[in-house]
Amino acid sequence: MSVNKEVKRVTTHVLQEMKLRGEKISMLTAYDFSLARIIDQAGVDVILVGDSASNVMAGHETTLPITLDQMIYHAQSVIRAVGRAFVVVDLPFGTYQGNSKEALNSAIRIMKETGAHGVKLEGGTEVVESINRILTAGIPVMGHLGLTPQSIYKFGTYTVRAKEEMEAQKLREDARALQEAGCFAIVLEKIPAALAAEVAKDVAIPVIGIGAGGGVDGQVLVLHDMLGISYEFKPRFLRQYLNLYEDILNATKSYITDVKSKDFPNEKEQY
Ligand code: KIV
What is the CATH number of the domain that holds 223? Predict the structure, then answer.
């Protein structure tokens, strides 16, 4: 299926229509102007300024350290590049849990200072109060269930979530709660494909999966993983389209060789 060029700007309404007509939603992360411009030109439907920036941009082990100011900086860079995609920004750890007023203030800062189109947060019934409050300001909210990296110290591992019936049942209920609260979409991360397909059928809003199989309404990957820039991270669900780590490594080695050997710059590459 080719990219729908008729769509001038992807909105929550467009995403809902895509679900209704069975057109899969494509979503990727971006954190900077240059890559955001390329993936927007390619026609990706949703760009997530993910808190995975904490890992792939800043080199932290988890998503916990990234701050609201840092997320705003990344989102501002992305927004300058984007003309078509719907841009969602992650509310970072500690800016929305347990305090709905703080959640609203954080979401307002993101919308006001970046020009993004919506926010994403992790969790189910525990964060419904925060979602309700953010929605009072007319800010679209995307939910995130399953493996929620901001809770990694609670889980203790990055393995598949909701394999046991009790956790699966909680996830079903959380998905319904997010829909009832007014979320426009939900990300399901690293859960069994059958459960994700069941949830996508059960709720009316788009469900976008990462490591959640093909029975959902769309797919999201971290851009640096999908381009093969992140070297060590190769989970089973990841389809790697390029091996940029090797390409950039080899290009850099060639450059160093050319500089050392005085091959660069040549006659044509100077004034
Ligand atoms: O931060 C992120 O990149 C995400 C995706 C994995 C969905 O939340």
Answer: 3.20.20.60
